[in-house]
Amino acid sequence: MAQSYYEFFCPVKMIAGHKALEHIPFELTAIGVSRPMIITDKGVRQVGLVDHVTNAFDGTDREVAAIFDDVPPDSSLKTVQAAAKAYRDQQCDAILAIGGGSVIDTAKGVNILVSEGGNDLTKYSGAHNLPKKLNPLFVVPTTAGTGSEATMVAVISDTEKETKLPFASYFLMPDAAILDPRMTLTLPPHITAMTAMDAMTHAVESYTCLSANPMSDAYASAAIRKISENLMDVMATPDNAQGRLELAQASTMAGAAFSNAMVGLVHSLGHALGAVCHLPHGLCMNLFLPYVLDYNKSVNGDKIADLLLPLAGADVYANTPQAQRADKAIAHLRQMRDELFERCNLPRTLKETGKVERSQIQQIAEKALDDGSIIYNPKEASLEDLIQVLEGAWE
Ligand SMILES: [Fe+2]
């Protein structure tokens, strides 16, 4: 399955550590920014996370020129246009996104409009439709899951047409990702668990999918190891700042991996389930991960076997015969899910969610078959195959 040719691109400057936020003013000055605009949401602002960033400007000769905090849970064209207007009104010259996936995607959309001009975002939708580098974009993630701070993609909802517009361009990659544990210390346990399982799935799918390459493999396996070593400690001790920093780094590493190697069937099924039953993305990842690996095992069991080392450590890996490593890696992921269920009731099966009817499986399977991620899955899947995986994930 080795690639005869591949590219790997991640120009994002990583600024990580317990006082990483304090470096933001210096980093902005270094690239000539004088009027940054913060884009965030009301929840992030209410719990004081924006203050951590604005306080970092105290005593410097830089200040935040504007704060737009009106990003909804699902980013939309209207939100992007409103934020772009605020940016222009305040004559800003850079964006500082503070939030999770929706905030980061909104910021990427805003950056297209304020860099390219005009108010029509739709004409840039699709792959590689941006002509040049955009204005500076710094991202401060407040969850450790989406990895959007290290990806070249964004999804913005067109609420009038009830569709989601995908954007993919190297120019959508942020200039910097600032990883500071203060931004995730207060995440509730079930959000910590769901987002970590999203990052875990990004890493596992990028390692095992058709476009995996040696560079993405390195980022993916490092991310899996960090999540395996730190997630349960953070679940037990949520204010464990070092553990939080490790998970934040894992999420960014997994983002860099899947931005270059893509994902697979777990995401296809997860996107479909999310659309049909309105369940959070990270939960959908947790639901499908082991079942999809079981399905894929017959074609890429050797790659799945590799995962036992970052998942379970050197002793377990060395003591497990090669022929059993893939099954043991999958069993290890199941055990993680059992622990998360015990700690925060994170559902492991479709039935446990209480939000899915068995009769919806056909519809979910049909939708998943149309999802773009499926083309990178190592094993081809028919509608019947998808139904079988979904039935397996039922209870
Ligand atoms: Fe994901």
Topology:
Elements: E1 13-16, H1 24-30, E2 36-39, H2 42-46, H3 49-55, E3 66-68, H4 77-89, E4 94-99, H5 101-116, E5 126-127, E6 137-141, E7 153-158, E8 163-168, E9 176-179, H6 189-208, H7 214-236, H8 241-261, H9 265-277, H10 281-306, H11 308-312, H12 314-318, H13 322-344, H14 350-353, H15 361-369, H16 383-392
Parallel strand pairs: 1-9, 2-3, 2-4, 4-6, 5-8, 6-9
Antiparallel strand pairs: 7-8
The structure holds fe (ii) ion.
Give an overview in words.
The protein has 2 domains: 13-183, Rossmann fold (3-Layer(aba) Sandwich), CATH 3.40.50.1970; 189-392, Dehydroquinate synthase-like, alpha domain (Up-down Bundle), CATH 1.20.1090. The protein has 16 helices and 9 strands. The protein has helices at 24-30, 42-46, 49-55, 77-89, 101-116, 189-208, 214-236, 241-261, 265-277, 281-306, 308-312, 314-318, 322-344, 350-353, 361-369, 383-392; strands at residues 13-16, 36-39, 66-68, 94-99, 126-127, 137-141, 153-158, 163-168, 176-179. The strands form 2 sheets. The chain has a 6-stranded parallel sheet, covered by helices on one side. It has a 3-stranded mixed sheet with strand order 5-8-7. It binds fe (ii) ion. Fe (ii) ion (FE2) binds at residues 198, 201-202, 267, 281, 285.
Alpha-beta classification = alpha/beta
Strand order of the largest sheet: 1-9-6-4-2-3
* Proportion of residues in helical segments: 40-55%
How many runs of DSSP E, i.e. beta strands? 9
- Output the CATH topology of the largest domain: Dehydroquinate synthase-like, alpha domain
* pLDDT < 50 runs, ≥5 residues: none
Largest sheet: 6 strands, parallel
Small molecules in complex: fe (ii) ion
Mean pLDDT: 96
